[in-house]
Amino acid sequence: MGLLDGKVALITGGARGMGASHVRLFLEEGARVVFGDVLDDEGKALAEETGAIYVRHDVTKPEEWARAADAAVEAYGKLDVLVNNAGILKFRRIADMAPEEFDRVVDVNLKGTWLGIKTVIEPMRAAGRGAIVNISSIEGFIGAAGLSAYAASKFAIRGVTKSAARELAPYKIRVNSVHPGAINTPMALDPDMMNEVDADSFVKSMVIKRFAKPVEVSHLVAFLASDKASYCTGSEFTVDGGLTTGAGY
């Protein structure tokens, strides 16, 4: 018996990194998975490897959201779970950041999440229940120099999550947010950011002194998507090795 047996899930940003980890674990736990991304080569390769369905999906475009949700319903007859995982990071200090760069980060991370919630309401209502997991960040709690746009988007996801949880509870749709810390993914190892960060000091500030594997986040996401989390909604869950305890961060 898998944690997600019988569930149909749509996962955004699923072609690599943490998203690909979600895809693999959801399949292992019995879910049927449709995942989207704009990285076609990587997405198609993962689909071929795993048997999940890949759709090209720019999360800033409502029509592509509709196409992705329709793909899940057409393939499997329903949609139970949405993981709003797609996100981008642009390391740039405020004085040096172009407004267009700020807009792009907010469009993908925040507007993309909001559009996802909006899109899946009807198919989840039709299914009789649903679970939405929004991937935020510890930067949604504390912020960091050079990450003003990213932090703004991730703070805002917390508010959208709580509002959506209240709005959608009458339809038995749960909405929660997950806040990863230092995860070993391509986005977290952004070259511009790594050139500015004192890696040794950062590791010393950790309570658990290592970067996490993506699957360590995926296990929490799968739990929140499952019926085991039936009384969790509007809540925020950190997977950060203790970074947000305030111990020197």
From TrEMBL:
GO molecular function, one term: androstan-3-alpha,17-beta-diol dehydrogenase (NAD+) activity
The entry's keywords: Lipid metabolism, NAD, Oxidoreductase, Steroid metabolism
Protein EC: 1.1.1.53
Ketoreductase domain segment(s): 7-172
InterPro entries linked to this entry: KR_dom, NAD(P)-bd_dom_sf, Sc_DH/Rdtase_CS, SDR_fam
SUPFAM superfamilies in the cross-refs: NAD(P)-binding Rossmann-fold domains
GO BP annotations, alphabetical order: steroid metabolic process
Family, similarity comment: Belongs to the short-chain dehydrogenases/reductases (SDR) family.
UniProt-recorded name of the protein: 3alpha(Or 20beta)-hydroxysteroid dehydrogenase
Species name: Nonomuraea endophytica
